[in-house]
Amino acid sequence: MKKEKTAFFIIKWLITLTVIYTGWVVVMYSLQDKFIFQPTTEMIEHPVARDLSWEDVEFPTSDGETLHGWWTDNNEDKTILFFHGNAQNISHRTGQLFIFQRLGKNFLIFDYRGYGLSSGQIEKEADFYEDAHAALKFLIEEKNIPPEKIVLWGKSVGSAGVLELAQEYSFSKIVLESPFFSLGEVAQYHYPFLPAKWMIKYKFRNGEKIPKITSPLLIFHSKEDEVVPFSQGQKLFEASPEPKTFVQLEGAHNRAIHENTETYLQALKEFFE
């Protein structure tokens, strides 16, 4: 009788733990959009605050959304198309614009749907890619800039937009900051006790796309990156074709370029020469 009670107790607790774990998985699955995409609509700063010339631009997506961005024409031969990270909006990236200005390039920085002044909301992976294509189409058709004159530049999740385009067109150059091989692997790193790699809706399989690129590549990544593991940047770099350059930085995910400004700028200048 004692053994039967013990067995019953163990089974009861196993069932309870299974129910709790299953519930946890369901909750995390339903909330993953909020973890991955963290947009804000408040515009806190404009390029004029950093003495930059700029133009508000809007352009449509093929599915009816309107995206907002800032365009700066420095009358240069090359134009940077920048894809920002998963949080906030372009008004939090004016420091990045200052770097583009120091490099002397034309540039377009824009907000994905649901960010800043852009309409809509990201509901599936295809939405993110559609926004990338819309930004490229704007440069090609509205600004008459061919892909071979465009530098694709992506930060973190922005690397997925860059590589979606880069597998289809040949660009001048590609710059990636804190990129990942796949978002599923990043999710598994942060949630090792969940089947995160398989339950995530947004796969963003950069590793499958990067072997197809034909443009010179520069990757920045910090060993202290707490958001995207350094190993992810290394793995992506190893899968990419030549010519390519990897620059190791120091500092947190959103602080590395600020803590290594001279190393960062020197690498960029050499890459663009």
Furnish the topology, listing elements before pairings:
Layout: H1 2-36, E1 38-39, E2 55-60, E3 66-72, E4 79-83, E5 87-88, H2 94-103, E6 106-110, H3 125-142, E7 150-155, H4 158-166, E8 173-177, H5 183-190, H6 196-199, H7 206-209, E9 217-222, H8 230-239, E10 244-249, H9 256-259, H10 261-272
Parallel strand pairs: 1-5, 4-6, 4-7, 7-8, 8-9, 9-10
Antiparallel strand pairs: 2-3, 3-6
The strands making up the biggest β-sheet line up spatially as 2-3-6-4-7-8-9-10
Which CATH class of the largest domain applies here? Alpha Beta
Radius of gyration: 21 Å
| Count of helix runs | 10
Q: Which residue ranges are poorly predicted, with pLDDT under 50 across at least 5 consecutive positions?
A: none
> Going by CATH, what is the homologous superfamily of the largest domain?
Alpha/Beta hydrolase fold, catalytic domain
Helix/strand structural class: alpha/beta
Average pLDDT rating: 89
CATH second-level architecture of the largest domain: 3-Layer(aba) Sandwich
> How far is it from the N-terminal to the C-terminal residue, by CA?
82 Å
Largest sheet: 8 strands, mixed
The name CATH uses for the topology of the largest domain is Rossmann fold
Q: What is the molecular shape?
A: globular
Order of SSEs: HEEEEEHEHEHEHHHEHEHH
- Tell me the number of strands: 10
Helix content: 40-55%
